[in-house]
Amino acid sequence: LRKKCVFLPILEKKLLKYASFNADTKWNTNRFGILEPVYSDRNIVSARQLDIVLVPLVGFDRECNRIGMGAGSYDRSFAFLKRRTIWHKPLLIGLAYDCQRVEHIRPEVWDVPLDCVITEEECYGSY
Fold it and tell me: Choosing from 75, 76, 84, 115, which is the catalytic residue?
């Protein structure tokens, strides 16, 4: 059995922070009606400390550009990845249905592309 830690996002202002999750985790409902783990500062990690992030999306293209919900929380939280040179984490994986794929998304300068998108039909991207 591999000992893996799972962290779930918590929206704080316009950024995401990540709290550990286990079977005993208590929940709060955020301002958007989304359940988030109750946390203390000792079970919070930064986005830079994560290995793999499963990223929600509304749409994507073959180049792994994504359309989110429009608030920019993921792009702001992972903006540091656009400046990475030697490290390769976290890996950003979009989960979607193939019907969410669009022909082309023109990314904005602040958009952070995904490493890959996995659908029920195919895996898009270079990872």
Answer: 75
pLDDT in tens, 10-67: 998 888 999 998 889 999 999 889 999 999 888 899 898 999 999 999 999 999 999 9
Angle among Cα 6, 93, 100 to the nearest 5 degrees reads 125
User: Residues 24, 66, 106, 115: which is the catalytic one?
Assistant: 66
Counting beta carbons within 10 angstroms of the beta carbon of residue 100, is it exposed (0 to 12), middle (13 to 18) or buried (19 or more)? middle
Query: What predicted TM-score, i.e. pTM, was given to this entire model?
Result: 0.87
Sign of the four-CA dihedral 49, 69, 31, 76: positive
Q: Which helix (H) or strand (E) holds 74?
A: helix 73-77
Q: Is 111 among the residues known to form the active site?
A: yes
* CA-closest candidate to residue 91, choices 73, 71, 70, 64: 64
Strand partners, 37: 27
| For residue 110, pLDDT beyond 70 | yes
75 is catalytic: yes
Q: Is 18 helix (H, G, I), strand (E, B) or coil?
A: strand
